[in-house]
Amino acid sequence: MKDLDLRTLRAYSSHLGRRRKTNGDGISATTKNLQLIVVRGMLRFAVLMDLPVPGPEKVALGKATPPSPDARHLEASRLDRLLAAPQVDTADGVRDRALLELLLATGCRVSELIAFDRQRIELDPRAADPKDGIRIADELTVLGKGRRYRKVFLSQRSREWLARHLRDRKDRDPALFVSRKRNADGSYRMSVWMAERIVRTAAKRAGLTEDVSPHWLRHAAITDWATNFGLPSAQRLAGHQSVATTSRYLGGSDAELKAQYKKRFG
Predict the structure, then answer these.
(1) CATH of residue 105
(2) pTM for the structure as a whole
(3) Above 60 in pLDDT, residue 241?
């Protein structure tokens, strides 16, 4: 910490401005600011400890323009193509389809999704059969950002694919989604990177040109909830503290907006 001065801080900020993602694009202003906020926090702590460092106010944040929700919007037909992309004649394909369906049904963040254990999803053998005969839970409690709990609900279609996925499983790993790569703790739980790759591979197979990530499916879910249930309900399902956060997720194509307008006003 003793070598941390204004020149070093400016050099680090400049370095962030030159950083590139794996696809060659520069990192966004929002990502850069997140890194600088961490530095601010470190400096704030150092000041409290009476260490000779610059004040946190010396770290200037850039102006980040919120991304348009339309940039991550998938029309219904394109979303259907994405979901249907995995080759479900293989166990991995069924797993991938189940993962996509669960992302869309629950609107979960990918980190929340891969943390699910199969025992939370599968009904206890002693439990009575549900009316639809699918022995998969229809709701879950998720621990999300800010250590806030929320309920998420599973559609019938996502439950059907999960049941098929779990029937195909031959392992005893407790994770709901696994890969062939063994982790340091001895488990085969799927990583965030692997889940992201599954979504991107499905998008390419579906012929989508955008760099689709799991968060696009969260956007799709929140937009659907807001359209059908209203913003307050969408806010609760998404686990947002503020309805303003939820509203930033809402997107739509011009064709969809026109259809909604015609439906309402003729």
Answers:
(1) 1.10.443.10
(2) 0.75
(3) yes
